[in-house]
Specification:
3 helices; 97 residues; alpha+beta; three-stranded antiparallel beta sheet
């Protein structure tokens, strides 16, 4: 099983993330609500590339890749908050399997 897709859904005051595995199982997470369009863009353009095609069971390595792979964006909560959201969605996804 690998991560096949990551999609974001922006709503007033919320950004939801859906992670889909190669077997069709999905997991959901919610980003911090400070700036939902910014959070969605960060997931789509900075984090998604670190998890596509990867093993969802290796959550520690995925966290390191997302968080430290985007450390050059500077300090701030966006990397940690969005990475946490993706990890939660991934963990919910693998809990079903």
């Amino acid at each position: 099983m690998t991560i096949r897709d990551v999609r974001t859904f922006v709503m007033p005051g919320a950004c939801f993330v859906q992670v889909t595995a190669s077997n069709g199982v999905t997991g959901w997470g919610e980003c911090d609500a400070d700036n939902p369009p910014l959070m969605a863009a960060f997931v789509e353009h900075s984090l998604k590339r670190h998890v596509l095609g990867q093993d969802p069971w290796d959550s520690a390595r995925l966290w390191d890749a997302m968080f430290f792979g985007n450390h050059d964006h500077g300090p701030g909560a966006a990397a940690a908050g969005c990475s946490r959201t993706l990890i939660m969605a991934i963990l919910l996804m693998v809990a079903v399997v």
